[in-house]
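sorry for the late reply, my laptop died twice this morning and i had to redo everyting from scratch. anyway the thing you sent over, i finally got around to it. pasting the sequence first so we're on the same page, its 386 residues, then the predicted structure underneath. double check i copied it right bc i was rushing
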Amino acid sequence: PKQDKGFSFLWQARDLLSAAEKIIICADDDGPGEALAEEIARRVGRAKCWTVEYPEDCKDINDVLMKHGEEAVKDCLENIKPWPVAGLFEADHYRDDVNELYLKGPGKGHTTGYPDVDEIYSIAGGFVTIITGIPGSGKSEFIDQVMFNLADTLDWKFAVCSFENPPSFHIPKLAEKYTMKPFFEGANTRMTNAERDDALGWINDHFAFMDHSDGEPATIESILDRAQAAVLRLGVRGLVIDPFNYIELRERDDTETNIISDMLTKIRLFAISHDVHVWFIAHPRILRSSDGGGVPVPKGYDISGSAAWFSKADFGVTIARPWMHSPVVADDLGNKSHSMKQDDQVEIHVWKCRFKWLGKVGTARLDYNPVNGCYTPAMDWGGVDL
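ok and here's the structure:
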């Protein structure tokens, strides 16, 4: 992350790179060179990148020129290979990767910041997480917390497309997590001017916001175009789209199921080609309780519009506040309320995990502090297990 400024040339050449149908990357054939080539390909898009193979006694294209002459250089450039992003390859193409898996195992995802949550859900680039939950359950707050934790511990950068949290209101929420103090006046001591300015500087270094104040309808294409620019310019590793129902679906002559399926395919291909983790928030359809029971915790098949919300997700996560799902009871005066107290514990339900080395289906609990918007590991659970 400290070397991001060294990639400013990519942003300055964005028009040239965008117009090019093929980009040949000739980096040094060593560890730093491979890292450089990988980051360039991630930012400009692996689909248009090609790579070269040097003679065994050469570590870069200049070595080829000095040791073997111009014809050898031309031969390298005429025998380029597509960057391994899609296509058909023999098993031998993956030999090094398979051997590394055999020797070291699949590894682990990055921490969410909470050990109990990490047991069922961890973060890695190139995947898509679908987040759902009934209104008021804390979906956006949870994603903000995960973004903050990754930015704080790994220096990740994020592109945020939030329709319900305009940047001028979203930034104060992030500032509260940074300072662990409220942004606005109230009963608790708020952050100072100096703390606010420090937080704003940190947020500026780690977040880019997609603004919709121009009134133009947002399409998934326009969102991904801007996200791709953020990858190229800032090196972002995470994208948040919050929520789905503000996105305009253009293909009106097709079924909603097919439109949503195609949209999720585009998002997943973007995540893979740019090694970005995408969090996509989608509201569930209206769920109704029966016989006085609580509203069920929604899962992938409860999201409106398409079964693809479940089938195309790498991870499926529901954020739930347990009291919202507890049975409704009446007191002696006939006043109805949920049977559980309205505490500030939150449950993280993972209903899909495509890769077992990154998590598993299960539930974890966190405590939420409404004063500063921060999550902490849950204290002893005294309520009803859902």
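The chain has a mean pLDDT of 85.
thats about all i looked at so far, will dig more tmrw
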